Protein backbone atom coordinates (compact mmCIF):
# COMPACT_ATOMS: atom_id res chain seq x y z
CA UNK A 1 0.00 0.00 0.00
CA UNK A 2 1.40 3.38 -0.95
CA UNK A 3 1.28 6.21 1.57
CA UNK A 4 -1.07 9.13 0.82
CA UNK A 5 0.51 12.05 -1.02
CA UNK A 6 2.03 14.77 1.10
CA UNK A 7 0.17 18.09 1.12
CA UNK A 8 1.86 20.94 -0.74
CA UNK A 9 4.08 23.19 1.34
CA UNK A 10 2.33 26.30 2.66
CA UNK A 11 4.80 28.59 0.91
CA UNK A 12 6.39 28.62 -2.50
CA UNK A 13 9.29 30.85 -3.23
CA UNK A 14 11.80 31.89 -5.78
CA UNK A 15 14.16 34.07 -3.82
CA UNK A 16 17.67 35.39 -3.75
CA UNK A 17 18.45 34.09 -0.29
CA UNK A 18 16.24 36.57 1.55
CA UNK A 19 13.84 35.31 4.18
CA UNK A 20 10.23 35.33 3.04
CA UNK A 21 8.93 36.64 6.35
CA UNK A 22 10.85 37.73 9.41
CA UNK A 23 9.75 39.91 12.32
CA UNK A 24 11.41 40.80 15.57
CA UNK A 25 11.32 37.62 17.62
CA UNK A 26 9.72 35.69 14.76
CA UNK A 27 11.19 32.76 12.95
CA UNK A 28 11.94 32.94 9.26
CA UNK A 29 9.39 30.85 7.40
CA UNK A 30 11.61 29.78 4.53
CA UNK A 31 14.82 30.78 2.79
CA UNK A 32 16.14 29.56 -0.51
CA UNK A 33 19.34 30.45 -2.34
CA UNK A 34 18.44 29.90 -5.97
CA UNK A 35 19.64 33.03 -7.78
CA UNK A 36 21.11 36.45 -7.25
CA UNK A 37 18.11 37.92 -9.13
CA UNK A 38 16.56 40.92 -7.28
CA UNK A 39 13.12 39.68 -8.36
CA UNK A 40 11.60 37.38 -5.77
CA UNK A 41 8.15 35.88 -5.41
CA UNK A 42 6.25 33.79 -2.88
CA UNK A 43 2.69 32.74 -2.12
CA UNK A 44 1.55 33.29 1.49
CA UNK A 45 -1.49 31.99 3.36
CA UNK A 46 -2.90 35.50 3.78
CA UNK A 47 -5.68 37.83 2.72
CA UNK A 48 -5.04 41.23 1.21
CA UNK A 49 -7.05 44.40 0.56
CA UNK A 50 -6.01 47.71 -0.97
CA UNK A 51 -7.00 51.33 -1.08
CA UNK A 52 -5.47 53.95 -3.37
CA UNK A 53 -2.76 51.49 -4.46
CA UNK A 54 -1.64 50.70 -0.88
CA UNK A 55 -2.16 47.15 0.37
CA UNK A 56 -2.77 45.65 3.79
CA UNK A 57 -1.54 42.06 4.02
CA UNK A 58 -3.51 40.15 6.69
CA UNK A 59 -1.66 37.23 8.29
CA UNK A 60 -2.97 34.75 10.84
CA UNK A 61 -3.75 31.14 11.55
CA UNK A 62 -6.69 29.45 9.88
CA UNK A 63 -9.90 30.77 11.45
CA UNK A 64 -8.22 33.86 12.93
CA UNK A 65 -10.44 36.28 11.01
CA UNK A 66 -8.39 37.20 7.93
CA UNK A 67 -11.34 37.04 5.54
CA UNK A 68 -13.69 38.71 8.04
CA UNK A 69 -11.33 41.66 8.46
CA UNK A 70 -10.93 41.87 4.68
CA UNK A 71 -14.73 41.89 4.22
CA UNK A 72 -15.11 44.62 6.87
CA UNK A 73 -12.55 46.75 5.03
CA UNK A 74 -14.20 46.08 1.66
CA UNK A 75 -17.51 47.26 3.14
CA UNK A 76 -15.76 50.56 3.95
CA UNK A 77 -14.47 50.96 0.40
CA UNK A 78 -11.25 48.95 0.19
CA UNK A 79 -10.72 46.62 -2.77
CA UNK A 80 -10.09 42.87 -2.56
CA UNK A 81 -6.65 41.86 -3.76
CA UNK A 82 -6.64 38.23 -2.58
CA UNK A 83 -8.18 35.89 -0.03
CA UNK A 84 -6.53 32.81 1.45
CA UNK A 85 -3.51 32.85 -0.86
CA UNK A 86 -1.64 36.04 -1.75
CA UNK A 87 1.22 36.32 -4.22
CA UNK A 88 3.95 38.62 -2.89
CA UNK A 89 6.48 39.82 -5.42
CA UNK A 90 9.58 41.90 -4.91
CA UNK A 91 11.00 43.71 -7.89
CA UNK A 92 13.93 45.83 -6.77
CA UNK A 93 12.61 47.91 -3.87
CA UNK A 94 8.94 47.46 -4.81
CA UNK A 95 6.86 44.87 -2.92
CA UNK A 96 3.49 44.05 -4.49
CA UNK A 97 0.58 41.79 -3.61
CA UNK A 98 -1.64 40.07 -6.16
CA UNK A 99 -3.93 37.06 -6.42
CA UNK A 100 -3.36 33.66 -7.99
CA UNK A 101 -5.59 33.58 -11.12
CA UNK A 102 -7.56 30.52 -9.94
CA UNK A 103 -9.09 32.39 -6.97
CA UNK A 104 -9.17 35.95 -8.31
CA UNK A 105 -12.21 37.93 -7.15
CA UNK A 106 -13.33 35.30 -4.64
CA UNK A 107 -13.48 35.54 -0.86
CA UNK A 108 -14.85 33.13 1.72
CA UNK A 109 -17.48 34.49 4.08
CA UNK A 110 -17.48 31.88 6.82
CA UNK A 111 -20.93 30.31 7.31
CA UNK A 112 -22.24 32.20 4.26
CA UNK A 113 -20.20 30.80 1.37
CA UNK A 114 -17.89 32.02 -1.37
CA UNK A 115 -18.52 35.53 -2.62
CA UNK A 116 -17.45 36.94 -5.97
CA UNK A 117 -16.30 40.55 -5.67
CA UNK A 118 -14.59 43.10 -7.87
CA UNK A 119 -10.86 42.94 -7.23
CA UNK A 120 -7.66 44.94 -7.71
CA UNK A 121 -5.01 43.30 -9.87
CA UNK A 122 -2.13 44.32 -7.56
CA UNK A 123 -1.08 46.88 -4.96
CA UNK A 124 2.04 47.92 -3.07
CA UNK A 125 2.32 46.21 0.33
CA UNK A 126 2.31 49.03 2.90
CA UNK A 127 1.09 47.33 6.10
CA UNK A 128 1.01 43.83 7.54
CA UNK A 129 -1.60 42.97 10.20
CA UNK A 130 -0.63 39.92 12.28
CA UNK A 131 -3.87 38.54 13.74
CA UNK A 132 -1.97 35.97 15.81
CA UNK A 133 -0.46 38.69 18.00
CA UNK A 134 -2.49 41.00 20.22
CA UNK A 135 -1.51 44.62 20.66
CA UNK A 136 -0.79 45.55 24.28
CA UNK A 137 0.19 49.19 23.81
CA UNK A 138 -2.46 51.91 23.56
CA UNK A 139 -0.14 53.87 21.24
CA UNK A 140 2.01 51.12 19.76
CA UNK A 141 5.65 51.74 18.94
CA UNK A 142 6.66 51.57 15.30
CA UNK A 143 7.20 47.93 14.31
CA UNK A 144 8.46 46.51 11.09
CA UNK A 145 8.92 43.09 9.60
CA UNK A 146 10.97 41.96 6.67
CA UNK A 147 9.12 40.43 3.77
CA UNK A 148 11.29 39.15 0.94
CA UNK A 149 14.05 41.33 2.35
CA UNK A 150 11.93 44.52 2.36
CA UNK A 151 10.84 46.35 5.53
CA UNK A 152 7.05 46.70 5.96
CA UNK A 153 5.09 48.33 8.81
CA UNK A 154 3.76 45.63 11.16
CA UNK A 155 0.58 45.95 13.22
CA UNK A 156 -0.91 43.57 15.79
CA UNK A 157 -4.59 42.79 16.36
CA UNK A 158 -6.20 45.35 18.70
CA UNK A 159 -7.77 43.55 21.69
CA UNK A 160 -11.57 43.32 21.54
CA UNK A 161 -11.83 45.94 18.84
CA UNK A 162 -12.90 45.86 15.22
CA UNK A 163 -9.86 47.36 13.54
CA UNK A 164 -11.30 47.84 10.03
CA UNK A 165 -12.04 51.55 10.42
CA UNK A 166 -8.60 52.38 11.78
CA UNK A 167 -6.86 50.23 9.16
CA UNK A 168 -8.90 51.88 6.41
CA UNK A 169 -7.47 55.25 7.46
CA UNK A 170 -3.96 53.78 7.69
CA UNK A 171 -4.26 52.87 4.02
CA UNK A 172 -5.37 56.46 3.37
CA UNK A 173 -1.91 57.37 4.74
CA UNK A 174 -3.31 59.04 7.85
CA UNK A 175 -1.33 57.15 10.52
CA UNK A 176 1.03 59.21 12.65
CA UNK A 177 4.05 57.49 14.12
CA UNK A 178 6.39 58.81 16.80
UniProtKB/TrEMBL annotation:
Keyword Disulfide bond among UniProt keywords: no
Domain HPr kinase/phosphorylase C-terminal: 40-116
Any Gene Ontology biological process: regulation of carbohydrate metabolic process
Keywords per UniProt: Kinase, Transferase
A Gene Ontology molecular function term of the record: ATP binding
CDD domains assigned: HprK_C
Pfam families (alphabetical): Hpr_kinase_C (PF07475)
Stretches assigned to coiled coil: none
Entry annotated with the keyword Kinase: yes
Annotated protein name in UniProt: Hpr(Ser) kinase/phosphatase
Organism: Tropicimonas isoalkanivorans
Amino acid sequence: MTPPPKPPPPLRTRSAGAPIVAAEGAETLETQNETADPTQETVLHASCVALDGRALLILGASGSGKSSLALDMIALGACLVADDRTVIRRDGHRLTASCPPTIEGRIEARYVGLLRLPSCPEADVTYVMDLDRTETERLPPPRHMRLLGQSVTLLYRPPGLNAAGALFHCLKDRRETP
